[in-house]
Structure formats: structure tokens, C-alpha cells
């Protein structure tokens, strides 16, 4: 028969082992995130927040808890999952480590209540601080990639949709908008999910045209709204601050209104007449030149742009362009993408 005191000591030892493992797990995950903030983003604010959290966690990692460590006897050291063996890109690496940190913090919050009267409260607060850090950092990542993106593919319904999009991604494109006006919602959902995964694999942003609900359903990076779609403020309330919201504009007034409403980027066009926008008159290169001088957020010239006129659009002041048919109907989408990027990379965008 086990003595009561001995039973209590055994229970304390188990709790100490649980706390030790999760304190290590939390600090390791935060350090992985911190290294990207420091060296990848050169962002002292995010790096500093990770360091502060690590140091606060370290204060709870007492000698008493460390003494319970038994690595050789830990049955979990050999457990793994295929998804842990590889990461598609930095975003998926960060996401995995945020999940790791948050799970460990929840364990510390619950088992900490059995160790110290203040430990549960302390780790509950830290868990919410990590949620905020994740939201801010992932939003920052998205917006940084938006600023760096020069070429924007807007999809059109084609039989080989996934093949075409992947071919363009292989060419170096980092921004894709899923646009499908006529399919039923089940088809849209399936296509958007597959395209979202494809973009994630290549480290590209995935935007959904018009449908805020669909963007949420597939965890898209954002949504693109037309002039007749819901107000940006309402979309922002639904999507949160970390996702990207774009707005189509055809003139100076619409541009200024979109900026005032809080759009993250705008489309400027149609530069030339295009069957994608039936019955809509071309805004022309004059609007492109106006945007070059007056737009304070990232903007993409769009509408009828192809390899024959891309340089005229660039010469009018466009640092970024969005295209549909010239890539979706191309026989060599990877090469055409590379050509567009080679021309656009000659120009340094002011916004």
C-alpha cells in the first residue's frame, strides 16, 4: 500500500514534469518566432515582445520544476507526425509554432493551478498576449508581402485552373485573386480551398473576389471588393485587422474614397477596354499617371494589360499590374509571368 505522503509526492513529481516539458516547449516555440522577427523582418517590436514573454516564462521555470525532468523516461520523445517533418514556407513554420506555444500555455495555465496560486492567472494572460502577437505578426507578414508584390493574377474560369495557377506561381507570382461569378457555392468552396493550399505552398497571398464569407471559410489572406460590394468598414469588422482588403476604382474620387475607408490596396482601371468588364469604359493611362502621383497605398493597374502594352503602362507610372486573360489563356504562363516580373522589377515603387 502506498503511503499518502508518498502518493502526494508522486503526484507533485508528475505535475512538475508536465510543467517542465511545457515551459521548455513554450520558450522554444517563442524563440523560433523571435528569430524570424529579428532576422527575417528586422522588426524590433515583435522580436522584443517574444523576448519579453520568454523571460517572463523563464521566471516560472524553477530549479524544483527542472529537477523533475526525465528525458530518458519520457514516452513522448519518439512521437512525431509527418507534418512536423517539413514546412512549406515561413508562414506555415510560424503558424505551427504559434499553435505549439498556445497549446503549451494552456497546459501551463491548467496544471499551474496545482503548483502555485498565481501561475494559472499568469499563463492565461500570456496566452491572450500570444494570440494578439500572432494576429499582429501574421497581419504584418501579409501586408509586407502585399507591398513587395508586383504582379497580381485574377483568375478566370478555365478547365485546367489549378495547373494554370501553379504554373504562374512557379514563375514567381506572389498574389492570386480567385474570381468566379457563375459557379454554385459548393464548387467555389472546393476551388477556393485548393487554390488557398496551392498559394500557401508557394508562399503567395490568396485573395477572394467579392465574397467575404468565402474568404473566411477558406482562411484566405483577404478579399477584393468592387464599388457595389459591402463597405470596407463592414468587411474589416468581419475579417479583422490582419487580413487584406482591396477595392476596385475607376477614377480619382473612388481612389480617394477607398483610401479614406481604409483599403489596403486598390485596383486602378480598367486601363484598356476588356471583356472581363463588359460595358465599362476604359479609364486610360491618364488615371494610371494620376495614381502614380497621388495614391498613398499599394495599387495595381488592371484591365486589358498584356505583353504588348505592359511597358506603356509601366511608363505611365504603374509599379504593379494585375492581369487576367494574358496569363489564364497563355500557352506558357510561367514564362509570361517571368517576363512581366522582369519588366516590373525595373521600376522601384514609391507606394
UniProtKB/TrEMBL annotation:
GO BP, sorted A to Z: thiamine biosynthetic process; thiamine diphosphate biosynthetic process
Enzyme Commission designation: 2.5.1.3
UniProt binding sites for Mg(2+): 210, 229
Residues at which 2-[(2R,5Z)-2-carboxy-4-methylthiazol-5(2H)-ylidene]ethyl phosphate binds: 274-276, 304
UniProt-annotated stretches for the region Unknown: 1-129
The ThiD2 domain, residue ranges: 17-135
Residues annotated for 4-amino-2-methyl-5-(diphosphooxymethyl)pyrimidine binding in this entry: 177-181, 209, 248, 277
CDD domains the record matches: TMP_TenI (cd00564)
Domain of life from the UniProt record: Bacteria
Reactions listed under catalytic activity: 2-[(2R,5Z)-2-carboxy-4-methylthiazol-5(2H)-ylidene]ethyl phosphate + 4-amino-2-methyl-5-(diphosphooxymethyl)pyrimidine + 2 H(+) = thiamine phosphate + CO2 + diphosphate; 2-(2-carboxy-4-methylthiazol-5-yl)ethyl phosphate + 4-amino-2-methyl-5-(diphosphooxymethyl)pyrimidine + 2 H(+) = thiamine phosphate + CO2 + diphosphate; 4-methyl-5-(2-phosphooxyethyl)-thiazole + 4-amino-2-methyl-5-(diphosphooxymethyl)pyrimidine + H(+) = thiamine phosphate + diphosphate
Pfam family, one: ThiD2
NCBIfam families, sorted: PRK02615.1, thiE
Function field: Condenses 4-methyl-5-(beta-hydroxyethyl)thiazole monophosphate (THZ-P) and 2-methyl-4-amino-5-hydroxymethyl pyrimidine pyrophosphate (HMP-PP) to form thiamine monophosphate (TMP).
Stated name of the protein: Thiamine-phosphate synthase
Organism encoding this protein: Richelia sinica FACHB-800
Taxonomy of the source species: Bacteria, Bacillati, Cyanobacteriota, Cyanophyceae, Nostocales
Amino acid at each position: 500500500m502506498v503511503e499518502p505522503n508518498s502518493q502526494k509526492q508522486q503526484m507533485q513529481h508528475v505535475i512538475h514534469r508536465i510543467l517542465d516539458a511545457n515551459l521548455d516547449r513554450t520558450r522554444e516555440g517563442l524563440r523560433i518566432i523571435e528569430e524570424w522577427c529579428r532576422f527575417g523582418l528586422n522588426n524590433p517590436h515583435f522580436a522584443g515582445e517574444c523576448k519579453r514573454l520568454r523571460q517572463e516564462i523563464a521566471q516560472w521555470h524553477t530549479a524544483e520544476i527542472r529537477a523533475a525532468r526525465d528525458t530518458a523516461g519520457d514516452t513522448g520523445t519518439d512521437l512525431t507526425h509527418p507534418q512536423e517533418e517539413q514546412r512549406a514556407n515561413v508562414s506555415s513554420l510560424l503558424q505551427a509554432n504559434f499553435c505549439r506555444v498556445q497549446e503549451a500555455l494552456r497546459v501551463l495555465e491548467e496544471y499551474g493551478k496545482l503548483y502555485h496560486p498565481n501561475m494559472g492567472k499568469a499563463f492565461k494572460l500570456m496566452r491572450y498576449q500570444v494570440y494578439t502577437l500572432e494576429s499582429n505578426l501574421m497581419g504584418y507578414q501579409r501586408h509586407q508581402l502585399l507591398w513587395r508584390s508586383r504582379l497580381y493574377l485574377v483568375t478566370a474560369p478555365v478547365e485546367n485552373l489549378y495547373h494554370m495557377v501553379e504554373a504562374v506561381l512557379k514563375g514567381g507570382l506572389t498574389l492570386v485573386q480567385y474570381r468566379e461569378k457563375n459557379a454554385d457555392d459548393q464548387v467555389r468552396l472546393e476551388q477556393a480551398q485548393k487554390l488557398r493550399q496551392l498559394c500557401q505552398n508557394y508562399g503567395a497571398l490568396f485573395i477572394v473576389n467579392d465574397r467575404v464569407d468565402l474568404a473566411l471559410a477558406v482562411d484566405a489572406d483577404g478579399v477584393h471588393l468592387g464599388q457595389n460590394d459591402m463597405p470596407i468598414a463592414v468587411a474589416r469588422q468581419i475579417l479583422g485587422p490582419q487580413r487584406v482588403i482591396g477595392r476596385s476604382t475607376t477614377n480619382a474620387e473612388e481612389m480617394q474614397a477607398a483610401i479614406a475607408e481604409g483599403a489596403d490596396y486598390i485596383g486602378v482601371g480598367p486601363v484598356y477596354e476588356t471583356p472581363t468588364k463588359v460595358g465599362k469604359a476604359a479609364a486610360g493611362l491618364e488615371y494610371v499617371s494620376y495614381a502614380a502621383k497621388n495614391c498613398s497605398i499599394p495599387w495595381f493597374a488592371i484591365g486589358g494589360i498584356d505583353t504588348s502594352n505592359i511597358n506603356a503602362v509601366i511608363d505611365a507610372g504603374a509599379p504593379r499590374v494585375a492581369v487576367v486573360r494574358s496569363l489564364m489563356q497563355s500557352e506558357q504562363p510561367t514564362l509570361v509571368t517571368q517576363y512581366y516580373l522582369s519588366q516590373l522589377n525595373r521600376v522601384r515603387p514609391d507606394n
